[in-house]
């Protein structure tokens, strides 16, 4: 070993880096890009979500609550439906929430109203439960129950309804041995929510008041 006084550092090399250095730099850059870059599928998903949010916000800013929203989803052709719907029938929808749900056109009008509030999942869940309780095949019962749970009840379900934690967990336990009554508590909660919250607003909505006016105008 040379004494410290006789040792000199090697001269710095000038000019282009060596091939090994270039490879090392390229690898480091690739790793850096991978670490901070955005995964293409995730980026596309994010873009779709952003577009969906912008569309939803756009709908909110141009929120419609009109008679046309009702006629657009009538089970029959609008003109034919209005000829069949009397003022007396439409007026009875205000008697009770269950009277409204039991009437074909009342149900269609209420669904149109909920769409303007982006809460139609509550009605769709209630209807799904009504259909589920008519199931007679034991072989189909479990699969139908699972579909309803995954679509409306489970956390972050595509059309998750607004129910409390206890009701959600009770329904989850009911899935272990599905029966015709396994959604009863959840359905009751959603029915009560619509009756106390959405139904009064529907009766004051332009959809309903315009509909009454249309049926009255037909008689005059």
Automatic annotation (TrEMBL):
Location within or outside the cell: Cell membrane; Cell projection, Dendrite; Nucleus; Perikaryon
Main location: membrane
CDD domains: RGS_RGS8 (cd08711)
Superkingdom of origin organism: Eukaryota
GO cellular component: dendrite; nucleus; perikaryon; plasma membrane
Keywords: Cell membrane, Cell projection, Membrane, Nucleus, Signal transduction inhibitor
Compositional bias (Pro residues): 8-19
Record membrane topology: Peripheral membrane protein
Location of the region described as Disordered in the Swiss-Prot/TrEMBL record: 1-54
GO terms, biological process: negative regulation of signal transduction
Keyword check for Nucleus: yes
The keyword Iron is assigned to this record: no
Protein species of origin: Otus sunia
Gene3D superfamilies cross-referenced by the UniProt entry: 1.10.196.10, Regulator of G-protein Signalling 4, domain 2
InterPro entries hit by this protein: RGS, RGS_RGS8, RGS_sf, RGS_subdom1/3, RGS_subdomain_2
Domain (RGS): residue spans on this chain: 96-212
The protein's name: Regulator of G-protein signaling 8
